[in-house]
Specification:
Elements lengths: L2 E5 L8 H16 L3 E4 L5 H12 L4 E6 H4 L10 E5 L2 H11 L2 E4 L4 H16 L6 E4 L6 H12 L13 E2 L2 H9 L11
Parallel strand pairs: 1-2, 1-5, 2-3, 3-4, 5-6, 6-7
Helix pairs in contact: 1-2
Length: 188
């Protein structure tokens, strides 16, 4: 595992803990020798993780659709910028570049990107590690929803720990490093 894609918000949230812990995650990733693959934004949680990686001497690969490059605040500090034609191409390129996936706090776009990797794992498109950085207990409602999907039979029980919620950066990287593939879903 060399590169980790992080799906997260271009907003910083209402509590300063989100930006602080995102920065700390980026710094810790670089200190552990991991490169960051991300959406190339310079603001919010996305920018904080990038800043942490770069401040610790790490390497960042940003993937930005050309249409957003003209509208959003594309990072000028990114180690490597890859411009693509569409959001679909961005997601595909990030998945191709990454050896593991993390979701940190963000909005609908972060959820959408993350759940594509989650469902792709279930159907066998990839068997890469997935983790959720549960800053400030942000993703506990999501965990309740996933548990309900399992209890109601919409997600197989074996995927209960497919994307564990991790409250610390150390726990998060440990879970990625020790990931055991869960196999392709069955249709029983």
């Amino acid at each position: 595992m060399k590169r980790i894609a992080v799906y997260c918000g271009a907003s910083k949230g209402k509590n300063d803990i989100y930006v602080k812990q995102a920065y700390d995650l980026g710094k810790y990733m670089a200190e552990q020798g991991y490169e960051l693959v991300f959406g190339a934004g310079s603001v919010g949680i996305m920018g904080a993780i990038q800043d942490g990686v770069l401040d610790a001497g790490g390497y960042t690969i940003g993937v930005m659709p050309k249409m957003l490059d003209e509208k959003e605040i594309t990072s000028q500090k990114v180690s490597e910028l890859i411009l693509v034609e569409s959001m679909h191409e961005r997601k595909h390129k990030m998945a191709e570049l990454a050896d593991a996936f993390i979701m940190a706090p963000g909005g609908a776009g972060s959820l959408e990107e993350f759940f594509e990797m989650y469902s792709w794992s279930q159907i066998g498109i990839h068997q890469k590690p997935i983790g959720i950085f549960n800053i400030n207990k942000f993703f506990e409602p999501l965990q309740h929803m996933l548990n309900a999907m399992i209890e109601e039979g919409f997600i197989n029980e074996k995927y209960k720990n497919l994307a564990p919620l991790c409250d610390t950066k150390e726990q998060l990287l440990y879970s990625l490093e020790n990931y055991q593939p869960l196999g392709v879903r069955s249709y029983d």
